[in-house]
Amino acid sequence: MKRFAARYAQPASLLILSCAILFDLSLAVGLAGMLIGAAALFIPASWEA
């Protein structure tokens, strides 16, 4: 699970944040992107498959 998160969640977070900046979306969209990336860092090791 942690590997999955590192591979997909953080790039997705950057993509959301970039789109929020480029297309002048609301602050909530940018914050959601940052939260997704931050949450991926704190996935517990017990979730490892």
Order of helices and strands: HH
| Cα-based radius of gyration, to the nearest Å | 12 Å
Helix content: over 70%
> What is the domain total for the residues?
1
Please provide the count of β strands. 0
Residue runs with pLDDT of under 50 for 5 or more positions: none
Q: Give the strand content.
A: under 5%
- What is the number of helices? 2
For the termini, the CA-CA separation is 6 Å
- From the helix content, strand content and strand pairing, which structural class follows? mainly alpha
Shape: elongated
Largest sheet: none
* Average pLDDT taken over every residue: 75
Question: Could you give a short description of this structure?
Answer:
By secondary structure, the protein is mainly alpha-helical.
Secondary-structure map:
Layout lengths: L1 H21 L4 H15 L8
Helix pairs in contact: 1-2
